[in-house]
Amino acid sequence: MLRRQGWGVNHTRVYRVFGEEGLAVRRRKRKRVAGRRVPLVLPTRPDELWTMDFTQDALRSGRKFRTLNLMDGYTREALAIEVDTSLPSARVVRVLQRLQAEQRMPERIQVDNGSEFISQVVDQWACEHGMALHFIRPGKPTDNGHIESFDGRFRDECLNQFWFVNLLEAQERIEMWRQDYTQEGPHRRLGYQTPTEFAAQAAARGASPPTPLAFSKPEPTQSKHTRGRKLKHDWRL
What we know:
Blueprint: H1 11-20, E1 49-58, E2 64-72, E3 78-84, H2 89-101, E4 108-111, H3 120-128, E5 132-135, H4 145-159, H5 167-183, H6 195-205, H7 227-230
Parallel strand pairs: 1-4, 4-5
Antiparallel strand pairs: 1-2, 2-3
């Protein structure tokens, strides 16, 4: 971020100051899953593949709210984060209609098997607009790794950092984070460009696949001596 702002900095010194000032975001330890991973089929152009998922959090009063997260699997743009105490299937369609009015429409959307996504309302709308719904295998969230990775970052950098007083504050802060993520945050898989910059570049010169994801290939069997080391591989997208 400093280099993007024109500073000539040494990365080791920045890292030392970063650590001494305690600026690192506290990240929740996530369970590492051992076993063979199936490489994701990467899209090759904007609006070819979108992904959707829900997350949940609570206000200061204890009242729960949900967020519908929607992103472009190619440009990594956070297209929308809808926030409310209830997000039924009709609300999912309303979000898609809003993006359609902004001239954004995917060829297909990859989702899990949640009740909102398998509903007749969403299926009918998708069919009427020539949009395919791709459902991941039940109990296999890694099949939708792009949005799962986004959900983790969203929780670490936004949901876990704020204590929302009311729903309006949650909506405002989450929208500010979404815009910052899309417009200001450099992404390693995009060559340290922001999603907005990468999308503009793809539109200007024609889309090309981002850097392929590399997956380590575990051995068919693991002994008790090697199992711990195998789990240390970083499977994050």
